[in-house]
């Protein structure tokens, strides 16, 4: 075809690509930090019912779910913005806060969407290396804040290392951040935290006007495929997040599923405790095999294997387990069922070292 080529943005090639965990037929998937169990039966019923009205647009304001979340967390509904997964809200935050050339600060390695949403939103991505212990270097992150910084992501617990920062460290950091810079506490894995020293971001957000919390229904609530997450933010920011949202981005099915999941939190949380138990087992067995495994407060473990990361993932796949390799850096392995974890541990045990 000959014609005038469309003019893509010059900087598009600089955007990193999001690499999703692979699904390989016949292999166990421990690559995307999902829960291994399907949605609860009551959630599936709600999904079925919502799908019956699939010829109609969803409630654009996500009214019922917003009210329910507000009640659940004891906050004003005006402080909640629901999105098509919390990753969509990461992008909306950049859109709502950053002008071209403004800076978004985050730890590295952390959630791989942060540099993508920053750069796609015409902002600059400022990556601050983790400490040698694979934890956020909050001092260095505070040092990295400049006049141009509009937004700092703190992923707590951190994906992919599983490590968490404690309340004292976070408060010391927050005290150093200017009032007009937003700190986003991304708590996608909050339900798996067992260390009481790790703060609930919602308590900090209740105190500080420059703190916003992101939560998701993708992990503990087992709705990754249905795409729903939310922000708890100061009311002006929540309104701005709604303002830049793609209209109708949260489907009726997603809204209904999230509402139904909120009716069954005890059951869901009991299964999260099961995942935490598997993470503890993976951590101790991997350590006794000689692997370095940072302490995890999430539903996954991190193996900082450096240059051997890709090779480890290949070996796991040969043993019918899909893990997530970050080439040259490490491998992240999500907790599955006890049988799936057994399969993975056997593969880790037979990896030539
Ligand atoms: C730290 C973190 N934040 C946000 C997300 C995005 O979750 P979702 O868009 O499914 O709500 C993920 C998903 O893996 C994550 O690890």
Automatic annotation (TrEMBL):
The top EC class is transferase
Tell me where in this chain the PTM N6-(pyridoxal phosphate)lysine is found. Answer: 219
Q: What is its EC number?
A: 2.6.1.57
Keywords (alphabetical) are: Aminotransferase, Pyridoxal phosphate, Transferase
Q: Which SUPFAM superfamilies match?
A: PLP-dependent transferases
Swiss-Prot/TrEMBL GO biological process terms: L-histidine biosynthetic process
InterPro entries, alphabetized: Aminotransferase_I/II_large (IPR004839), ArAT (IPR024892), HisP_aminotrans (IPR005861), HistidinolP_aminotransfase (IPR050106), PyrdxlP-dep_Trfase (IPR015424), PyrdxlP-dep_Trfase_major (IPR015421), PyrdxlP-dep_Trfase_small (IPR015422)
Indicate the segments forming the Aminotransferase class I/classII large domain, all copies. Answer: 28-345
Which cofactor does this sequence's record say it needs?
A: pyridoxal 5'-phosphate
GO molecular function terms attached to this record: aromatic-amino-acid transaminase activity; histidinol-phosphate transaminase activity; pyridoxal phosphate binding
Q: Name one Pfam family in it.
A: Aminotran_1_2
Q: Tell me what reaction this enzyme catalyses.
A: an aromatic L-alpha-amino acid + 2-oxoglutarate = an aromatic oxo-acid + L-glutamate
Annotated CDD domains: AAT_like
User: Which NCBIfam families does this UniProt record tie to the protein?
Assistant: hisC, PRK03321.1
The entry sums up its family as follows:
Belongs to the class-II pyridoxal-phosphate-dependent aminotransferase family.
State the function annotated in the UniProt record.
Aminotransferase that catalyzes the conversion of aromatic amino acids and 2-oxoglutarate into corresponding aromatic oxo acids and L-glutamate.
PANTHER family per UniProt: HISTIDINOL-PHOSPHATE AMINOTRANSFERASE, HISTIDINOL-PHOSPHATE AMINOTRANSFERASE 2
Q: How does it assemble?
A: Homodimer.
What name does this protein carry? Aromatic amino acid aminotransferase
Q: Which organism is it from?
A: Actinomycetospora cinnamomea
């Amino acid at each position: 075809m000959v014609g005038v080529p469309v003019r893509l943005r010059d900087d598009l090639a600089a955007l990193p690509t999001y690499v999703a965990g692979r699904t390989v037929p016949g292999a166990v998937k421990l690559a995307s930090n999902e829960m291994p169990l399907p949605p609860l039966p009551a959630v599936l019923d709600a999904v079925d019912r919502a799908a019956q009205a699939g010829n109609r647009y969803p409630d654009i304001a996500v009214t019922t779910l917003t009210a329910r979340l507000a009640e659940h967390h004891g906050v004003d509904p005006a402080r909640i913005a629901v999105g098509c997964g919390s990753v969509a809200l990461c992008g909306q935050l950049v859109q709502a806060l950053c002008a071209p050339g403004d800076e978004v600060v985050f730890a590295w390695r952390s959630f791989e969407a942060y540099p993508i949403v920053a750069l796609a939103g015409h902002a600059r991505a400022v990556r601050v290396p983790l400490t040698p212990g694979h934890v956020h270097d909050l001092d260095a992150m505070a040092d990295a804040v400049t006049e141009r910084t509009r937004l700092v992501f703190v992923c707590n617990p951190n994906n992919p290392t599983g490590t968490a920062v404690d309340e004292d460290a976070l408060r010391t950091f927050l005290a150093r951040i200017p009032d007009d810079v937003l700190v986003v506490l991304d708590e996608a894995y909050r339900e798996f935290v067992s260390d009481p020293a790790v703060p609930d971001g919602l308590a900090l957000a209740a105190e500080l006007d420059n703190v916003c919390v992101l939560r998701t229904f993708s992990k503990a609530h087992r709705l990754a495929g249905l795409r729903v997450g939310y922000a708890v933010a100061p009311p002006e920011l929540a309104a701005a997040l709604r303002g830049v949202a793609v209209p109708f981005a949260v489907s009726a099915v997603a809204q209904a599923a999230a509402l139904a999941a909120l009716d069954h939190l005890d059951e869901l949380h009991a299964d999260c405790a099961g995942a935490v138990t598997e993470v503890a087992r993976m951590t101790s067995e991997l350590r006794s095999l000689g692997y370095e495994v940072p302490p995890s407060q999430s539903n996954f473990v991190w193996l900082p294997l450096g240059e051997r990361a890709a090779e480890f993932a290949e070996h796991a796949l040969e043993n019918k387990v899909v893990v997530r390799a970050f080439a040259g850096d490490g491998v992240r392995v999500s907790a599955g069922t006890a049988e799936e974890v057994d399969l993975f541990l056997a593969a880790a045990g037979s990896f030539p070292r």
